[in-house]
Amino acid sequence: MFAAYGKMLVVVLVLLVILAGIIIFLINIERKINKLEKKISESHTEEDDNS
């Protein structure tokens, strides 16, 4: 019984680590996208000012 509990605990921990990695990855992508959107909007406003 304890062996099965230990295996279940390992599976849950592995899934939590994978989920945490995915969440961190998505947060990093979100930050990069926000930076790119900011650059694009700044370049569009500069083009509008120049014309």
In a few lines, what is going on in this structure?
By secondary structure, the chain is an all-alpha fold.
Q: How would you characterize the overall build of this protein?
A:
There is one protein chain. The chain has one helix and no strands. The protein is mainly alpha-helical and 51 residues long. The protein is rod-shaped and about 75 Å long. It has one domain (1-51).
What is the strand tally? 0
Question: What does the main sheet amount to?
Answer: none
* Rg computed from alpha carbons, rounded to a whole number of angstroms: 22 Å
SSE order in H/E notation? H
What is the overall shape? rod-shaped
Please tell me the total number of domains. 1
Query: Could you list the spans in which at least 5 consecutive residues all have pLDDT below 50?
Result: none
What number is the mean pLDDT?
Answer: 90
Global structural class: mainly alpha
| DSSP helix fraction | over 70%
Task: Note the gap between the termini.
Answer: 75 Å
Q: Helix count?
A: 1
Percent in strands = under 5%
List the helices and strands and how they pair.
Elements: H1 2-50
Which tags fit this structure?
51 residues, rod-shaped, mainly alpha
